[in-house]
Amino acid sequence: MYSAASPLPDQTDRSTSDWQNLDKSHHIHPFTDPKYFDDRGVRIITHGDGCYLWDSDGNKILDGMAGLWCVNIGYGNRELIDVAARQMEILPYCNTFFQTATPPQIELAARIADLTPGDLNHVFFANSGSEANDTVIRLVRHYWKIRGESNRRIFIGRNKGYHGSTLAAVSLGGMQAMQNFDGTVLPDFAHIMEPHWYAHGGDMSVEDFGVAAAQKLEDKILELGPENVAAFIGEPVQGAGGVIDPPMTYWGEIQRICRKYGIVLVADEVICGFGRLGEWFGSQYFGIEPDIICMAKGLSSGYLPISAIAINTDISKTLHEGGAIVHGYTYSGHPVSCAVAQANLNIIEREGLVEKVRQETIPYFRACLNDLADDHPIIGEARGAGLLGALELVQDKSRKTPFAAADGAAMFCRDAALDKGLVMRAVDQAMILCPPLIISKSQIDELIDISRRALDDTALKFGLL
Ligand code: PMP
After folding, report:
1. What separation in Å is there between the alpha carbon of 43 and the centre of ligand 1?
2. Each residue's pLDDT tens digit, 88-131
3. Alpha-carbon torsion 297, 423, 173, 215, what sign?
4. C-alpha angle with apex 109: 106 to 112, nearest 5 degrees?
5. S-S: 265 plus which of 36, 43, 169, 290, CB 3.0-4.6 Å?
6. How far, in Å, CA of 113 to CA of 124, rounded?
7. How far is the CA of 96 from the centre of ligand 1 (A)?
8. pLDDT per residue over 153-188, tens digit each?
9. Distance, CA 79 to ligand 1 centroid (Å)?
């Protein structure tokens, strides 16, 4: 029977195996096969500093995934800790339903309106990327009803798109395994091919493929009937689907097609927002002005849960005429999360982090990934943009022969990297990297060195080195 030995977990005298056994007995892990823990325990992460984590056995681990694509300013930032403590003292909670608001909410909404491209001047708060996307679905359908076009209900997303894990977000996304998990896909969602040139481009040039992939949107709109389509949603660079960066010709075409049919364009910037691609928003990197942007993760660098959707003036004006917004969350605009997000944005701005990653870190990171891919026998493609990278594992480079899923090559490589002190993620047959924005060039060298050794181990295991 569990009894808390002390109010703070790090002050207990439990051993690693005590924690592991307790975890096994009581804790269900998201996106994890419970059987994984039948014959081993979880790794207990005890603390973090900068780009590093430490586990309960004292191992220091470079966090090549910035947590889950979120800890952009790194761990242990004193300013954020102090702001959170201070806001908790002043006012730890206040709802936004009863015609009330707090200074941190108001300031943050105005700041987001300022930072986002175009006229995205109105902001709704939620707590996670999934909730932000559920909110988009409800508000956009409500918007079309107010406009007298209530048939416009369908959201078009993309295969391998990731928009979250709630029922609606899973339907919006294009992750087959998630849809199969509970067997529910809600009506009024459609999907088109993801713009992955290496997988689908064949003999086409990258540029031509970008246009052809965008054309799939127009085909789908015509198939469904434009009068039934509410919105198109996409991540500027698809993250959880395997870091799929579209050709530079893609997004402009998508925007053109949305405008042609009067369809709302939504950019899910939950990963790409706040500097990940070397611009404040991925939409700016690709030169588009969406009607709605969803954001989360990097908004608070993951220190507290918060998400937001920024909406353009046209949609906001219509919503203004449509009666009550019958939607919201207890923790919408949580004052402590808002205060922490504001402090996080202050740090990014003060330290010129967006410019710094654009000018220094990103070019170095990309060159290192490309060199690694050129050299290494089991990397078929290095892809991504900004500080988002994927290394596609193959058995035969010239034939692009993938490993069989059952071989578990990517999971093997991930575990090998972790044993050597680096968090990478495995998605299908790709190794994913998304380091904190504060990563230095020498830390990138360390990341590449460990990746190379983990890839060598993987190649050796499969007799390819
Ligand atoms: N959208 C995107 C693009 C994401 O990457 C994620 C999370 N990885 C989400 C939405 C869902 O966010 P959350 O897990 O906070 O619900």
Report:
1. 23
2. 999 999 999 999 999 999 999 999 999 999 999 999 999 999 99
3. positive
4. 150
5. 290
6. 11
7. 23
8. 999 999 999 999 999 999 999 999 999 999 999 999
9. 25
